[in-house]
Write a structure and sequence with these properties.
With 182 residues, the chain is mainly α. Helices cover 69% and strands 0% of the residues. The chain has 2 domains: 94 residues, Rna Polymerase Sigma Factor, Chain: A (Orthogonal Bundle); 87 residues, Arc Repressor Mutant, subunit A, CATH 1.10.10.10.
Length: 182
Amino acid sequence: MNELRLIKRIRRSGDRAAADRLVRLYYDEIYRFIRKQVPDDEIALDLTQEVFISVLRSIGHYDARGGASFRTWLYRIASNKLIDWYRSRSYRNRSLTMTLDELEPIDDTDFTRLLENNEFVEEVFAFVGGLPPDTQKIFRLHLFGGYTFREIAEMVDLAESSVKSRYYRLIHKLGKEFEDHE
């Protein structure tokens, strides 16, 4: 059964079996996306659960005819939950102990080599967490979600050139902010 049928069944009658099937279709994928961006499994599980609770609560607002696929809509919600978490008091009060091993490889650039330093990871995440949500979303979707600029443009409803521009501006800001970091 495809996702649109499941969504219709959930909307029409609150079908729990359809909701369960819809969640199972995307749960592992969304968990991996979130896990790449948070310091431990417990937080990733909590955020993934929050994503699907939000999805099921707001499924009536999803419009398949509006252009965005369900998957795109789902990633938008997941990105927003991550941004909210990084803005939250629980993140700010938490001592991050992330290591490079907990991050999946991103790229072979000098920037990635700097991620080996735990303090640097914390500083970068704090810096990115202080940026406007739309910029954070682009950064997270590209770097951790592996999405192309074209795919991100569709997700955030911007021109591809705007997405690229914001991403590279952020990378430039990160370079300037951390240029003295060794």
